[in-house]
Amino acid sequence: MVACESRTYEEISDTTPIAETVTYNKDVKVIIDANCVSCHSPGAQALTNYTQVKNNIDNIIDRITRSNGDPLKMPQGGSLSPSQINIITKWKADGLTEN
């Protein structure tokens, strides 16, 4: 089998350093606001505040790390950069701190 993946050079070469301790307000909120809130605003799947994102972190990580072409991959129509994914997964590892 052969798998094709369409990712830009910037996406695969992103070397943005990650903060020592990742927090929601400082690091994660900007990623969620820019990539998720347009579809996940008011409603059952809302991701508009700290509590909603924290309560859904396992699903978020599952969705953002899926392969291109997977219909459950988020965000739809694109991909977060490796650095953005690392920030979100490090936030969970760091204890899901708000500030």
Structure description:
The chain has 99 residues and is mostly helical. It has a domain at 32-99. Helix content is 42%, strand content 0%. It contains five helices and no strands. The chain has helices at 9-12, 24-35, 50-55, 57-64, 82-93. Helix 2 (24-35) packs across helix 5. This is Cytochrome c domain-containing protein. One of its GO terms (molecular function) is heme binding. It comes from Chryseobacterium taeanense.
The end-to-end span amounts to 45 Å
Number of extended strands: 0
Helicity level: 40-55%
The gyration radius over C-alpha positions equals 14 Å
What is the tally of helical segments? 5
- Mean pLDDT across residues: 87
Percent of residues in beta strands: under 5%
Which term fits the overall shape? globular
* Biggest beta sheet attributes: none
Given helix and strand content, the structural type is mainly alpha
- Would you identify the regions where 5 or more consecutive residues have pLDDT less than 50? none
What is the string of helix and strand elements? HHHHH
